[in-house]
Amino acid sequence: MGFFALCASENLRHYKPQKNVCSDTEPFVLPNLPHKVKLTRMKLAPYDREETEMTKFIEQVKESESTSFGVIVNSFYELEPDYADYYRKVLGKRAWHIGPILLCNRKNEEKFHKSVDHKQHECLQWLDTKKQNSVIYVCFGSMSNFTDSQIEEIALGLEASEQEFIWVVRKGKIPEGFEERTKEKGLIIRGWAPQVLILDHKAIGAFVTHCGWNSTLESVSAGVPLVTWPMFAEQFFNEQLITKVLKIGVAVGAEEWSIVVDNVKSEAITKAVKRVMVGEESKEMRRRAKEVKKMANKAVEEGGSSYSDLNALFQELRTINLHM
User: Fold this and answer.
1) What is the maximal distance between C-alpha atoms in the chain?
2) What is the DSSP string of 107-122?
3) Model confidence over 17-74: pLDDT tens digits?
4) Taken in order 83, 89, 91, 95, is the CA torsion positive or negative?
5) What is the pLDDT of residue 23?
6) Percent of the chain with pLDDT over 70
7) Which UniProt keywords apply (predicted)?
8) What is the C-alpha to C-alpha distance for residues 324 and 321, in angstroms, rounded to an integer?
9) What are the extents of the domains in the chain?
10) Which of 186, 125, 165 is nearest to 277 (CA)?
């Protein structure tokens, strides 16, 4: 979870603006944040919509934070400076940004990637045959669950977009005939995929994602714009950061926090994919994403914001040890 989501969840629980609307679909604004953040009750976890036993547990977790030494955040200052400052200075929390962690060992990773036989990854060979920024990568993490009807909508949406794609399908049934019809344009991967390597490939033009924080940072670190499809956890907060604050992505139109997903139509998928892949808007998003990538790499270099914050944390811990 990044600073934006930490601040949003803190203000949601403190001000409870969701209690001031008349329906689950009526928008409300999260108060006192640096940007205007609009949500609906449908986009909140069940324990944030109304009081439950889980609500009490979450409150206890939040209270325990006040007795902790602080919070280590896998983010970097330049990605969300307003929210890093807000979390520390307005909410009064102690925190250190030390990310993106995946970039901290980049040199060793590159050596490993070069040593891996390219033939082990069919998708990378396939991407090598494609033009720059021409392929959209579709993957929703290991925890997402789709109904068969939703998988069919994804297939129809991708096909209608007429874009080349890689689609990672963990489980579920692909519509009959889809792979045959799209074999010239698409590649389906069943199970695990080398996501960091895929996102780093020059052929990737955008990423359809569930907005999990790790996937978000991997895309940001690769300079790849996103199509946001949040489902649960803090993912609807992450969508707001991507689309409204950073402006490096477009929303597919998911409206409900849900463990099992069955609420996005193929037309919405097609529209979002085309927006992020074709035209002037997509070029501007890609330009901004590349700028964020540069900032991410600088953050973990010697003297960078994350490098310095990690050293500051080490220094504080050493000081505590000396006085024990």
Assistant:
1) 69
2) HHHHHHHHHS-GGG-H
3) 999 999 999 999 999 999 999 999 999 999 999 888 888 888 888 788 778 899 999 9
4) positive
5) 96
6) 94
7) Glycosyltransferase, Transferase
8) 5
9) 3-101+302-322, 118-297
10) 165
Which three-class secondary structure state does DSSP give residue 74?
coil
Amino acid, res. 35? H
> For the chain, how many helices (H) and strands (E)?
15, 12
**pLDDT one-digit tens code per residue, 87-123:** 999 999 999 999 999 998 765 555 445 445 555 678 9
The structure tokens listed for 158 are 């991708």
Question: How confident is the model over 209-225, as pLDDT tens digits?
Answer: 999 999 999 999 999 99
Does 166 have pLDDT greater than 50?
A: yes
Alpha helices in the chain (DSSP H): 3-15, 46-49, 53-65, 81-85, 101-104, 106-115, 122-128, 148-161, 178-181, 195-200, 213-222, 235-240, 266-277, 280-300, 305-322
Asked: is 3-101+302-322 a CATH 1.20.120.1200 domain? The reply is no
Q: Are 296 and 75 in contact (CB under 8 A)?
A: no
User: What's the token pair of residue 72?
Assistant: 């280590």
Q: How do strand 37-39 and strand 28-30 relate by DSSP bridges?
A: antiparallel
Q: Which amino acid is at 156?
A: L
Architecture (CATH level 2) of domain 118-297: 3-Layer(aba) Sandwich (3.40)
User: Coil, strand or helix: which one is 249?
Assistant: strand
Q: What is the DSSP letter of 43?
A: G
Cα gap 104→62, rounded to integer Å: 29
CA angle 213–41–18, rounded 5-degree value: 105
Phi, psi of 226 (to 5 degrees): -130, 150
pLDDT confidence of residue 111 = 44
